[in-house]
């Protein structure tokens, strides 16, 4: 793994997993998403990872018009790297998932490295009732849902966004096989170093949140990519802070945000994305490490620059 002297903090502001019932602090409207993104940047996040939601009821939406209500505000008020999802939300087609990134031509997007089961349905047991009708169905549907990311899908994204827009990728790897899939595309020269490899732990259907797995994913990535990658870690729910702290100790970058966990600590809800960014920043600096600025993150990841986007 290429050793970056600075730790890049990514903040995933809203995502498409959690629903409005689960936290009153989850940003829903474009205004809330913009404000949360700006505050996360002020707290120390270099990269802001973004999904959009229908402002009426908080359901995930791929609509570029909704994205364009917050993307320009974030650009005008920060120098953060904007990273737009290509994963979207459950049930969206690939064309829907790509609609906003193709419109916005961002410096970065996420790119999932394989099809997988993606189980959210265990969260049903935690709530007696839901604020909106769609929420329960959204969680239940994940019992019989395959998150589709075929080789053809991945090739299409690499061509349309990578070649077509100069966009680089946060390669989301939910299991060991996803690392090998990424290595396949590297061998074919369809992706170019430095790779930003986001290893993800604790999603039902992906690799479990065990410390041994974190180190195993790191070892396999080192074997496959050598000095051609930057390693980052995110973990779901209660595993978030312990795992990203382990990543920082072991030379990695970190991702936090309300997409990944609604909590700040045991039994304590995060009141904002910035709360989580401040906490991991404090941990990083306590470890005598330095947090990368957006300018430094751009250099490390060789991004095209915020002046070359279309929002």
UniProtKB/TrEMBL annotation:
<dbReference type="Pfam" id="PF05853">
    <property type="entry name" value="BKACE"/>
</dbReference>
<keyword id="KW-0808">Transferase</keyword>
<dbReference type="GO" id="GO:0043720">
    <property type="term" value="F:3-keto-5-aminohexanoate cleavage activity"/>
</dbReference>
<keyword id="KW-0479">Metal-binding</keyword>
<dbReference type="InterPro" id="IPR013785">
    <property type="entry name" value="Aldolase_TIM"/>
</dbReference>
<dbReference type="InterPro" id="IPR008567">
    <property type="entry name" value="BKACE"/>
</dbReference>
<keyword id="KW-0862">Zinc</keyword>
<protein>
    <submittedName>
        <fullName>3-keto-5-aminohexanoate cleavage protein</fullName>
    </submittedName>
</protein>
<dbReference type="GO" id="GO:0046872">
    <property type="term" value="F:metal ion binding"/>
</dbReference>
């Amino acid at each position: 793994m290429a050793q970056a002297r600075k730790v890049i903090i990514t903040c995933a502001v809203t995502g498409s997993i959690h629903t409005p019932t689960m936290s009153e602090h989850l940003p829903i409207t474009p205004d809330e998403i913009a404000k949360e993104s700006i505050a996360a940047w002020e707290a120390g996040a270099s990269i802001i990872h973004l999904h959009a939601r229908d402002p009426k009821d908080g359901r995930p939406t791929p609509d570029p018009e909704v994205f364009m209500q917050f993307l320009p505000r974030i650009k005008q008020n920060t120098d953060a790297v904007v990273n737009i999802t290509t994963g979207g939300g459950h049930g969206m087609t690939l064309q829907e998932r790509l609609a906003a990134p193709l419109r916005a031509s961002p410096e970065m997007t996420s790119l999932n490295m394989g099809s997988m089961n993606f189980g959210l349905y265990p969260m049903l047991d935690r709530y007696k009732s839901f604020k909106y009708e769609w929420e329960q169905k959204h969680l239940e549907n994940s019992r019989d849902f395959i998150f589709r990311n075929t080789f053809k899908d991945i090739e299409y994204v690499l061509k349309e966004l990578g070649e077509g827009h100069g966009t680089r990728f946060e390669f989301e790897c939910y299991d060991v096989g996803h690392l090998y899939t990424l290595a396949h595309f590297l061998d074919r020269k369809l992706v170019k170093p430095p790779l930003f490899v986001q290893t993800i732990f604790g999603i039902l259907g992906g690799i479990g949140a065990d410390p041994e797995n974190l180190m195993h994913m790191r070892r396999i990535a080192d074997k496959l990519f050598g000095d051609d990658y930057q390693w980052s870690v995110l973990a779901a729910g209660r595993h978030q802070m312990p795992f990203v702290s382990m990543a920082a100790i072991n030379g990695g970058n970190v991702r936090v945000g309300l997409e990944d966990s609604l909590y700040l600590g045991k039994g304590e809800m995060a009141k904002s994305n910035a709360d989580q960014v401040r906490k991991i920043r404090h941990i990083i600096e306590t470890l005598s490490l330095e947090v990368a600025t957006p300018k430094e993150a751009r250099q490390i990841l060789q991004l095209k620059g915020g002046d070359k986007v279309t929002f």
